[in-house]
Design a protein that fits this description.
The chain is of the alpha+beta class. The protein folds into two domains: 3-78 and 99-179, NADH Oxidase (3-Layer(aba) Sandwich); 181-310, no CATH class. The chain has twelve helices and nine strands. The chain binds cobalamin and iron/sulfur cluster (2 copies).
Length: 317
């Protein structure tokens, strides 16, 4: 197979896996790096946020991947997940947004590996700024809420990137683009309760985003109204309000429930090694293993919101 056929087959393999993808030349990573690192030690970006989230990208790709080799960026649909916790004889149904599960990354990685290895090439997962890469590759466009959108997919997908020594035949690198619908729309501004999306600049005020607060440990600051919390981790408000997502066929997957005993163990901050293996397995399956340290706090705030304060909708019995 020549390189042209191989590249075409790679795109069909991605498509058959139910994903979308684009390839760019690895040389552009220096532009991505400059774009992110310009925020270091500036007032534009909160430096606590920079240190926690933006300082760990992996710019050092293997030498044999250099020159005109490639980066593949993929997007694979994910649904939100509903998970239930039994507590005080009530069943609390909570949401985990799309993107917390690594299942889709693992699946597309193994498919790409088999394909490229068979053709004599190698592949390695890359830790890169995925939104910027997806938009620069032409795979996605930015939404005003700062997440990215793909036609007919909306924003409910997980992005993943891979280095490969496959030569880059068709370099898709381009300028960043905003989704046209955003020009006349303000739904995400209205839906975001914290002011993280603001009119004075495009870049998210990440330090104000509920996700930044609920993915990391610590007391929630006083300016956060406890009623704003809407997911076990993360937040879905600016995506659920978005008209670009209303066309997407998107159902919540309902899976896994935590018994009264398991809920209590989590609330009591029992460390992972002392939890029953079956509970750890559930957390793993949900992509929440690494968030065990924040679950007691997040769960408690949602119990207070839904069971103590309101006693409504999601109380099943
Ligand atoms: C750090 C991070 C966060 C931080 C900061 C978010 C942010 N906006 O940067 C926090 C914790 C707040 C967060 C929250 C969320 N995240 Co997050 N997060 C990341 C992470 C690790 C890096 C993102 C990043 O590079 N930020 C740095 C900033 C500088 O990059 P940027 O936002 O692309 O900024 C560029 C644009 O603003 C552009 N720009 C500037 N001016 C202008 C003007 C115009 C007109 C245009 C078009 C562009 C433009 O230039 C900037 C670069 O210089 C990625 C995973 C990864 N490895 O990439 C996931 C990721 C971005 N998160 C994701 C998701 C889904 C979320 C949440 C919805 C949480 C959830 N799952 O419930 C929220 C959404 C918050 C929001 N509205 O953006 C998904 C997004 C999928 C998608 N469809 O795009 C990712 C890609 C994870 C994944 N593997 O799929 N996240
Ligand atoms: S809600 Fe409106 S402005 Fe916000 S991302 Fe969606 S289309 Fe764009
Ligand atoms: S994820 Fe929630 S808090 Fe963060 S920008 Fe969107 S609506 Fe605002």
């Amino acid at each position: 197979m020549d390189l042209e056929q191989l590249t075409a087959s790679l795109y069909s393999v991605i498509c058959q896996a139910g994903s979308r993808g684009k390839i760019v030349a690895i040389k552009h990573l220096s532009e991505l790096q400059l774009d992110i690192e310009r925020y270091q030690n500036t007032e534009i970006v909160d430096q606590d946020f920079y240190d926690k989230e933006l300082s760990g990208f992996d710019w050092e790709y293997p030498e044999e991947f250099s020159d005109e080799r490639s980066v593949i960026i993929t997007a694979t649909e994910q649904s939100k997940t509903q998970v239930s916790f039994e507590f005080d004889r009530h069943k609390l149904l909570l949401t985990i947004p799309p993107t917390y599960s690594y299942e889709t990354d693992n699946k597309i990685e193994s498919i790409l590996k088999v394909f490229l290895n068979t053709a004599g090439y190698t592949l390695r997962k890359a830790k890169l700024p995925l939104k910027l890469l997806s938009v620069r590759s032409g795979l996605a466009k930015y939404g005003r809420n700062n997440v990215t959108y793909i036609e007919k997919m909306g924003s409910y997908y997980r992005l993943a990137a891979f280095y490969t020594n496959l030569p880059c035949l068709e370099d898709n690198w381009q300028e960043v683009e905003l989704n046209k619908t955003c020009i006349k729309c303000k739904e995400c501004f209205k839906a975001c309760p914290t002011g993280a999306i603001s009119s004075e600049r495009f870049l998210l005020h990440a330090e104000k985003c509920l996700t930044f607060k609920n993915e990391f440990p610590g007391k929630f600051p006083d300016w956060i109204d406890p009623k704003w919390h809407n997911c076990l981790v993360g937040c879905l408000l600016c995506q659920e309000a978005c008209p670009l997502n209303s066309i997407v066929k998107y159902r919540a997957e309902e899976r896994l429930s935590f018994s009264e005993e398991e809920s209590r163990l989590i609330l009591k901050k029992i460390p992972k090694k002392k939890l029953p293996q079956s509970t750890v397995n559930k957390l793993k399956e949900l992509g929440l293993e690494e968030y065990l340290n924040v679950l007691p706090r997040n769960l408690e705030v949602l119990i207070n919101k839904y069971l103590v304060d309101e006693l409504k909708d999601n109380v099943i019995y």
